[in-house]
Amino acid sequence: MSLRLAALLLLAMARWLPEAASAGPVFNVRDFGAVAGGHTDNSKAFLMAWMKACATPGRPAVVVPKGEYLVHPLVFRGPCRGYMELHVAGVIRAPDGLGAFRGLHEWIHFASIDGLLVTGGGTFDGRGATAWPLNECPRKRDCKLLPTVKFLRFS
């Protein structure tokens, strides 16, 4: 094998490996319409990638590549046909303010999932600094909790 071909192969592997460490099929949110930049609501693309991966046996991975992705409240629901991996290399960002939550208590909710693995070194950015001033709980006993990321009934 020529040195040039080996270098190209190594470069291709270096580009692919950080994006998905899964041993199974990969479902990149961009392939379902997600747009990086932090201004477009990508909730539908994330949910479509999740539903397709969840219906796939084995060890599928939903991949969030580098970039900033605005995601409104959503539920990643199981049970799934295989063990799920969510590989986050980018930033999943909550919307500004509480208007998008319309009384919901969770921003991102993982429910009824067996074998969930979250990898990738990315970030779930709930925009805490903008929400903390809205938290009345330190001052009022009867307060509403702010939305969170929630894991419910999974193993």
UniProtKB/TrEMBL annotation:
Which SUPFAM superfamilies does the record match to this protein?
A: Pectin lyase-like
List where the protein spans the membrane.
Answer: none
- Specify the signal sequence span: 1-23
**One Pfam family it belongs to:** Glyco_hydro_28
Q: What is any one GO biological process for this UniProt entry?
A: carbohydrate metabolic process
One GO MF annotation is: polygalacturonase activity
Going by the UniProt record, its keywords in alphabetical order are:
Cell wall, Cell wall biogenesis/degradation, Glycosidase, Hydrolase, Secreted, Signal
Task: Name the Gene3D superfamilies for this protein.
Answer: Single-stranded right-handed beta-helix, Pectin lyase-like (2.160.20.10)
Localization, UniProt: Secreted, Cell wall
| Similarity remark | Belongs to the glycosyl hydrolase 28 family.
Q: What is this protein called?
A: Polygalacturonase
